[in-house]
Structure formats: structure tokens, C-alpha cells
Design a protein that fits this description.
By secondary structure, this protein is mainly alpha-helical. It contains five helices and six strands, in the order αβββαβαββαα. The chain has a two-stranded antiparallel sheet. Strands 2-3 form a two-stranded antiparallel sheet. Strands 5-6 form a two-stranded antiparallel ribbon. The structure holds zinc ion (ZN).
């Protein structure tokens, strides 16, 4: 099953190759441009993604494909790399892969001369992620200590005493 994050990246990659999205409430296929701005997704891309999620991807699909974003977000599909162009391509989780990669109608793709589509690289958000993980580890450790504080301390000191006795008996022997 593809996560929302996977599907978001899938769209961002294909948008960078000029593939448009057909949205439920728009008459004509739409291409957010630019896709990436600096170290993050552009506002245009975020707005487009928000519109897609607002209808749970119903009736939204990448131009030239016949699976909807809603289907991609269901357990029946997963995203793999296309054997021909290494772009993310939806495959059914069971049964035959009847679908073709969206690259089939891109005459100029794959093209190894040009940079591949990418995800935005944000060192700031990467650091925030690390900090949040550290903070959650710290707070959960604190919780544990708070909850069984007396017990933990007792058993810990008992153990220390036992070890100490053991060491003493070893020394005296
Ligand atoms: Zn392909």
C-alpha cells in the first residue's frame, strides 16, 4: 500500500516531467508549476495536493493513466520503480500488472542527460525531525521513570547491594 507521502512524491516526480493532473473540479488538466521552490514544495504544488486530499483523490488522476489517486491510496496498489525509466509507477498489489508506466507517451523520457526529478531537500526540516524524535524519546523516558520511580529505584539499589555483597564475598574468599 502506498502511503500519502509516497503518492505525493509520485505526483511531484511526474509533474516535474510535465505530466498534468486531472482534478475533479477542474475542467482541464492542471500542472502546478514550479513543483519545487528552494528546499521545499512550491505553494502551487501544496495547493494542488490539498485539493486532491480534500476529495480523497476521488476522480483525480495523472493525465494518460486510468488509476485515480484514491485508488493509489487504497491497499490494492503500491508504487514501484519503472523498469524502463526508474520513475515511481503504480502496480496492483495482487494480480497482473496490467498498467503501463506514465512514461509511455513521453517521447523524450527516459533521458539520462538531464537531472532526474527529485524531492525537495530541506536540511532545516530534517534537523527538526531529528530534534522531535529526540524530544519524544526524552519525554517517554521521563514518563517511565516517573511512573515506576520508587520500584525502579528500589530494585536498582537492591541489585547494587547484591552485586556489592557478591563482590565482597569474592574478595573475602
Ligand atoms: Zn517508465
Amino acid at each position: 500500500m502506498a502511503s500519502k507521502q509516497d503518492v505525493r512524491e509520485y505526483l511531484a516526480y511526474w509533474f516535474q516531467l510535465g505530466k498534468k493532473i486531472v482534478l475533479r473540479n477542474r475542467r482541464s488538466p492542471f500542472l502546478p508549476s514550479p513543483v519545487i521552490q528552494g528546499d521545499r514544495y512550491s505553494q502551487e504544488f501544496e495547493d494542488c495536493w490539498r485539493d486532491i486530499l480534500a476529495v480523497d483523490g476521488q476522480d483525480c488522476y495523472l493525465e494518460g493513466t486510468d488509476y485515480t489517486i484514491a485508488e493509489l491510496l487504497s491497499p490494492s496498489w503500491q508504487l514501484e520503480d519503472c523498469a524502463r525509466c526508474e520513475m515511481p509507477v503504480p502496480l496492483p498489489t495482487s494480480g497482473m500488472p496490467a498498467e503501463v508506466c506514465p512514461c509511455y507517451d513521453l517521447a523524450l523520457w527516459p533521458n539520462h542527460e538531464v537531472p532526474r526529478p527529485r524531492s525537495p531537500v530541506s536540511s532545516a526540516s530534517h534537523l527538526t525531525g531529528i530534534r522531535e524524535r529526540l524530544e519524544s524519546v526524552e519525554s517517554s523516558t521521563e514518563d517511565e521513570i516517573d511512573e515506576d520511580s520508587p520500584q525502579t529505584t528500589d530494585s536498582f539499589s537492591n541489585q547494587a547491594i547484591e552485586e556489592n555483597n557478591h563482590t565482597n564475598s569474592l574478595v573475602s574468599n
